[in-house]
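User: Hi! I'm working on a homework problem where we have to compare a predicted structure to a textbook description. Could you give me the structure for the chain below?
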Amino acid sequence: MRRVGSALLSRLPRGPASAPARALSTKPVFPAVKLLESIGLPGSDAYDFPESKARFPDGGQYRIEIPSTEGVASFKAVLEESKKHNVTVHRVSQGTGIFLLPERELLDMLRIGKDNNIEVCLFVGPRSAWDTSATARTDGGKNISGHKGSDQFAAALEDVRWAVDKGLRSILVADLGLMYAIGKLVKAGKLPSNLVSKVSVLIGPMNPASALILDSLGASSLNAPTDLSIPQLASIRSVTNTPLDMYVEVPDDLGGYVRHYEVPKLVYSCSPLYIKLGLRNAPNIYPSGTHIEHTAVALSRERVRRARICLDILNRYYPTAVMSPPGGADLGIPEI
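Assistant: Happy to help. Predicted structure tokens:
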């Protein structure tokens, strides 16, 4: 076997003696890297874990968001657990949709948010995922997001208009066209100038260029895809100061990742950052309602407990990180 191996080796082409050294010392670079850099985009991910100097307007590096707060009972549970675990909650978000909240419950949620200086961010509906479409129930089509056709688009904008009139100041958007329309209406003075437009993870930026597009449409907060590494997120941070909101524990239908020990580096390299707690090994409760309220409440309580775990890790390994105080002026706190 040795003789055969030697014979094969002897037939391999031999270059100059310096060729292997040159190959090892030359970093492979796509020509497109220089093209990206020529238009102000990074040519690679930030593998050196740079420190982000960007901050929230109040000077904070990070805030806490509790997602899937599906109604009044869940919101009250979040408040109870936040006191129990000493967790400052800056924002709650909801996935069921404005259009599936009775007016009384909407007003109750807005009052709770106002009274506790917490942003209340509600998803805009109706949307295509729950429409009369077989595509939305296929493996490939179930993650297609947005509002289908002009009638549904108008209904979605009406969802925003109606809730804003009631005092809502933060919406969760999963359609680029709706982001465009809302941005135009804000500039025209037909929607409040302090309306927070939070981009859903369903259309979150995969790279710096897509982040800049969302910025140009008026996004106030960018929910990055759940599987992006810290170097990938840091490359996005290098082109925008818009806050990122990042699942550090991810629902199973979005990957199921548990990234608690990454929180210190995430805050260091990606601030301003909303630390967002989903739950692995938990049911998808959208759309929620009284029929599964006990489940939604239990999940809300556990999300706050998970937030405490992340804060403990952050305090151990990055104790100088600065949390925003409650009630920041840029938060979409209800006006009711």
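For your comparison, note the following. The domain at 54-317 is CATH 3.20.20.70 (TIM Barrel). The CA atoms of residues 247 and 276 lie 5 Å apart. Good luck with the assignment!
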